[in-house]
Structures are given as C-alpha cells and as structure tokens.
Design goal:
Blueprint: H1 2-26, H2 35-47, H3 51-61, H4 69-81, H5 85-96, H6 103-120, H7 123-135, H8 140-154, H9 157-171, H10 176-193, H11 196-209, H12 214-226, H13 230-243, H14 248-261, H15 265-278, H16 283-295, H17 298-311, H18 315-326, H19 331-349, E1 354-356, E2 362-363, E3 379-381
Antiparallel strand pairs: 1-2, 1-3
Length: 388
C-alpha cells in the first residue's frame, strides 16, 4: 500500500497546486491550501506509518476537477483494495457528481463505482451501472465481463448466456464451454421441476456450444438411468471416456449398474479394460480387481492389484489388499493388519479428493464451477499415492 502512496504523492502535490492556483485566480476570497505545507504534512504522516491521515491530506489537497480526477480514482481504488468500500464509494460518487469531468473520466468513475458495489455485495446497483456503460458504449468488454460475473452469482443463467454472447461478439472470444455449463444449470432446474421437454432442449444447447460437454453427458445419462432406459444411459456414460477421461471416477458405479440391469457384464469388463489404458487412477483398478476376485479367485485378484500398485503406488489399493487379507488372517497377523487398516483409514479420512487446476482449491465434493476462482471445468480428481 505504501508503494502506491509514494506513487500518488507527486500527482497529489501537482494537482493540488494546480487546483489552488486556479481557485485563487477565480476567486481571491476563496481559501486555498498551502500546497507545500500540506504536502509535507502528508509526507510526515506517511513516514510515521499513518497512511489514513496521509490519504486525508492528499484528498483535501486535490480538489476534484478534470485535472485531479485521476488522483481521486487511484485513491478510491486503493480504499476498495484495502476493504474500505464505503470510503471508495463516497469518492467515486463524488466524482460522478462533478460536471467538469470529461466523458471518459465519468465513464471510468462509473466503472470504479460499479466495482465498489460488487465488492460491497450490492449486485443490483453494480448491474445498473454496467448496463449504463453499455448504453454509453464505454468500457464495454470490462462491463460485460462484470455483468457475467453478477449473473453467475445471482444464478440468472438466461442473462448470463445473453451477455456471454455479447461478450464474444465484442471481443471475438469463445465462451462456448462456459455457456454449455449455463445450459446444464438450466437443464438441472428443468429436471427438478419435471419439465422433460425443456430439459432435452437445454441439453441440446449445451452440446451445441460444447460437443465435448461431460456434464451434459452425465446429466442425460443419469436421467435415462432413473427412467430405466439403461441402453441410452450406457451410451451417454460411455461418451465420458472420450470427452474427458478425468471424470471417469464419477461414472463407473452407475455405468456398472446399468450394464448389470441389461445383463451385459462382459461389456462392463471391456469398458474397464479400455479405461485402464486411458486413465491413470485407482478407481477403475479397484473395480477391475473386484471383477477378477469374483470371476477368477483371490490369488489372481491379489496378483493383479500388486502389479498395479507397483506401477502406480496407491494407499487405496493397499487398503483393498489389507481388507482382503484380514478375512484370511488370525492371531497376531490379524491384529497387525487391523492396525494398518485403521492407519490407512485415518490417512485417507481428511484428504481432499478434488482439486482446481486453476487456483488450487481442494475439497471432498465435486464442483463444476470452482468455489475459489469461479472458473468452470477446472476441478478434477486429485492424482497421487493417497488420492485417485
């Protein structure tokens, strides 16, 4: 913060001097500040680690007009970053009320005030200002970006879609992947309300904007599974392995259930074999080990798991081996295995399962939009010895 204040000192002093000179020329009876003494007073406050008092001095020095607006804008931005949103709002509102500002300066003050309102959580006021900037055709891309953020927070997905299209048109960007998620949000709402036709329309739009939309595939697969349309559910679950193999842990259990309901256990076995080639995680290994255990016996299942753990060490894989060995052990050996099993459970208990590849946010629940950085499609299963 002090670095920014040091940058503001010359601007504050110069603008204050200019303001005082103009004020003195216009009206000899109007009081003006002794720029030199005020400047050094502010500097003294700054050197004595009293930044609030220093800022007040520089604000008083810099009378608001078109030549000093930048100083006030910088100070308002500083207040907002410090969390003093009320002070930032007062500065920017005061700027907007000044008739001497240029159109560009007024637009910038409107934008800064909109950011103040967003910081304060007053999304309706911020929305109004950014829409006004769009009408003025000023700071359009930035205003559109903030409007998208506002509509996401409000879960107004229709408006988020509309503004995203405007943003792409303005910037020649491509928000297709994100817009597909907006349609998936609408599809989920339709599913909960029982509107099957609208659900299908939203899913169709999701695939139109992102033909590799894993979320849309999982949504429609789960819907078909609940309706006992297992063949269709298998089709959409099966798409995930080609769309994004990182999401395979989410679909193996329901896919296995679908194959079992249509008597196609061999097809599930083939799916697991293909998955083991494409996905470097423990979940398909555990399912394959269970399959081998049921069909070929304990020895073959253990050999399979031991070989897998050699290639990619995994606590969950070792835990599976321990659980299997417990039923065959007794005495001291069994006691030791119980201690080892409990230790592994404790080790895994508090470990996050998912992590955002963009900001590093982690947790045990899957989110399509990261709660930390608000990016879409960035949270994936964590890979590693004590994870996936």
């Amino acid at each position: 913060m002090q670095e920014l204040l040091w940058l503001l000192l010359p601007a504050a002093a110069a603008s204050g001097w200019l303001a005082a000179r103009r004020s003195q020329k216009k009206d000899d009876n109007r009081p003006c500040f002794d720029v030199s003494s005020d400047y050094f007073k502010g500097l003294n406050f700054l050197l004595n680690e009293q930044p609030d008092k220093a800022i007040e001095v520089f604000l008083r020095m810099a009378e608001v007009d078109k030549d000093t607006a930048e100083t006030h804008l910088a100070l308002g931005s500083l207040f907002r970053r410090r969390g003093e949103v009320d002070r930032a709002i007062r500065i920017h509102q005061n700027l907007i009320a000044r008739p001497t500002l240029s159109d560009e300066q007024r637009a910038l003050a409107l934008f800064e005030l909109g950011e103040d309102y967003m910081k304060a959580g007053w999304l309706d006021r911020a929305e109004h200002l950014f829409l006004e900037l769009l009408e003025l055709k000023s700071m359009v891309p930035h205003s559109l970006s903030h409007l998208i953020e506002i509509y996401q927070q409000e879960q107004d997905w229709e408006k988020a879609i509309e503004i995203s299209h405007q943003y792409d048109s303005e910037t020649e960007g491509n928000s297709g992947v994100v817009v597909a998620h907006y349609y998936c949000e609408l599809a989920e709402k339709s599913l909960h309300s029982g509107d099957q036709l609208q659900f299908s329309q939203y899913i169709e739009q999701a695939f139109k904007h992102d033909k590799s939309c894993v979320r849309a595939s999982i949504l429609i697969a789960n819907k078909e599974k609940r309706a006992k349309n297992y063949a269709q559910a298998i089709k959409y679950f099966g798409q995930v392995i080609d769309q994004d193999a990182e999401y395979i842990p989410k679909i193996i259990a329901p896919l296995k259930e679908c194959y079992a309901n249509v008597g196609q256990e061999k097809e599930m076995s083939s799916f697991l074999d293909a998955t083991l080639q494409k996905y470097n995680g423990i979940t398909p290994v555990l399912y394959k080990a269970e399959e081998i255990l049921a069909e070929e016996g304990e020895r073959q299942a253990i050999d399979f798991m031991v070989q897998q753990i050699k290639n990619k060490p995994s606590v969950r894989g070792l835990q599976w081996l321990v659980e299997l060995s417990l039923s065959k052990s007794e005495g001291k050996a069994q006691e030791n295995l119980v201690v080892l099993r409990d230790l592994m459970k404790t080790l895994l208990k508090n470990k996050p399962v998912y992590e955002c590849h963009h900001c590093g946010f982690s947790g045990k629940s899957m989110h399509w939009q990261c709660p930390g950085c608000k990016q879409w499609n960035t949270i994936k299963p964590i890979k590693g010895v004590v994870a996936e």
